[in-house]
Amino acid sequence: MCWYTPMPMTKRSVVTEVLVKSNGLGLEVDNKRFVMNINGYMKETETGLQSSLGEKVTSLGEMISLDSRSRPIWSTVNQAPVLILGGFQGYKIILVSDSEFADFTAVEVGIDSCWIGSVNCPLDSFSSSIFDAIATESVLLLRQNQLVYYFTGNYSVLSLPVPGSGLWTRVLNNICVSRLNPVPFPHNGSEFVIALGGGVQEGEFFLGTIRDGAVRFPESHAKGRKTVCEHLNISCAILWAVYITEKEVIVLLVEGKKKSSKSDYYIMAYDQADGDFWTLYSIPRFIPKDTEKGFVMLLGLEEYTDYLLIPRGLSYNPFSTIFYIWGNVILQSYDLLNYIQLSDFPQRSPISYFILSYVGEFVCVTVSEEIWFSVEGSSVVVRLYPSEPWDTYFSLQLMRGSKDFSFNETFVSLFFNKEGLQQLVYIPDGHGEGQLIRRNFPLHYILSYRHLIIHRYHWLYLQDSQYIRFFRPCSFSVMRLEDLPAPQRFTRMEHYCTEPPDVMDRTGFHNNVSLAVYQGLIFQLLWLHADYSRPYADPVHDPTWRWWKNRKQYAEYFFYVASNGNSSGGVYVNMEGYTKTYDLQPNNQLPSKIYLDKNNVYSFSVFLSIRSKAQSMGEMPEENSLDFVWLTIVLAHPKFVVSDLHRHYLRGRGSVLYSVTISDTGQYPQQELSGMNLLKSSMALKVINSATNCYHYTASGPKLQGYAMVPIFIGCPPGKRLAFDITRTLKYTTKQNKHYFDCIHENPELPCFFFND
């Protein structure tokens, strides 16, 4: 079984995704998402394609051991076509993948490792390891010891003004760099990375800008401006930095060093515009005492333990505006000024790295390789691994004979993609070699198993019969979204139906001619869509109409010729098979993102019932009450977006119906032309006490229910053009071999064409 797909490569296209779906006929076929990104780090040689980053490494067995620690994968979210992973102890080797590690290449990078240390940049020990590796749209960056290198990919489709690199280029030549911090989202066409200084530059930071393949770092601290240590008038070091692009503010985690072994920690802010520092928060020296509520509000009145609070890093979600300080505790804030401690997380094992999904979930990995999970805005923190639910799921996979699980596996990395939480593990084969596998981390399975293990079951007697009843921690049984608007207006997505040409050959098999015709038609369609700049008053909104407007009169003739197998070139293109779709339905699902124009309103309904199907038929008694079922909306920017909730009781059905309205207030001051200065915001839809408690069981497994966070983009005034930065979606059916294209518009400065699901 196989599929064919046109892969038109047009300008500004480096990230491509294809989603293959079943049409529901014949054999059951699971949906499959394929990542087909352009890898600009390859070169043509006499022996074929080879990596331009360095020499290919064929064996991973010597690099990965059972006691190796995992490390994060850093990249520009949804924009980097190639991901890289370093951190192999004693080896200057990185893993390079253009398919989100469905496959990969191990490369020994071609950099010189000559700087061991100096008076201005003391180095305790030398290592060949690549410590920090960051991937952007067209550039890879890495740090080895105190040296920073970058490599620009050969991306002609991006029309970069700079050529692709032939060798790794060193930057910040006179700077002692202690760490690289990623900036996960671009802003107005630029990507960023932050270098933290060490040695004589300790307490300084350097914001690097990446635009059109060019990397620019300031080579020294701006003269006349104080460093953060000079501002605090202490000896200090910067441990972590986060760049809030919308505010052009860099938030720093600063360690104030003292002669004694104790240190003070501060959260500092730096304004890029005027160069001023100010103190946001002084972190408590000791860990607060647990209140057994799952959280502790840090008001200065709480009691403290004797354990030192040691922060190690920062994380920020620009959509929810939630800011995290993590180390041997997790502190959470909505405004960078007031904090709560998530006390369910123990201090016995500090966090090694922190991963945000940017759609409402986060995961952290500790130095002892424990994996912890939470939902943003909730105080519940759950250990996923090691745990009894994990052991249960792991045993079931071994019983099934799954090759993706093994007793001797090594945990390599953890990251989120559009399919959820992904885990990289290395499984040795017992002969000195092995295989690096990417697998879906069973997040929802573990959370649902956890409730079965914790709450067990109880006996239920009904009509002289005895039943086993499992405890339901969820306050409702059924949740549905209803009355959602048509998605095209709010998702900036246009949809096209495109049939492949009919082949005149008796076998019906496609050949190079038919596929080339199809490829050209899809390329032309994307070009027409991107070039479509007519105002909304134009009576014709379908760019494909301009293909056929002068040929419609010949449609019956062409069909007659094709029906007799005499079409020119052996292929027949049906004009009616290329149309724009206007009647897309929401299918009772919230979109993955919402764009709100000035004063626009997005409304829908939420149906919640305490009765299951069996309870509605009188087979089982009701256990819950509507008094415990309450829906809430949490907005990231309540000044610019407001919500209204109206609760309607349906007592005869044991249900409530919420009418929800999300409105733009029109007060966002930076609303400009389409795609410029978009404000990242979000709406979190939550049923009270549903975090990690409520699940909807489907054929593909349990799914978290009762919580949803949808990113909202604010900025486009009505009546403006919505074209250019176009995300393309391919959906396939095999019934008539049709292809459906969804096009989403964002930033006119970056018209980056790519496919996604």
From TrEMBL:
Pfam families, A to Z:
CATSPERG_beta-prop, CATSPERG_Ig-like, CATSPERG_NTD
Chain coiled-coil ranges: none
Give every CATSPERG Ig-like domain span: 589-713
> What's the name of the protein?
Cation channel sperm-associated protein subunit gamma
Q: Where is the CATSPERG N-terminal domain?
A: 1-37
Q: Which residues form the CATSPERG beta-propeller domain?
A: 46-485
InterPro entries assigned to the protein according to its UniProt record, in alphabetical order: CATSPERG (IPR028246), CATSPERG_beta-prop (IPR053871), CATSPERG_Ig-like (IPR053874), CATSPERG_N (IPR053872)
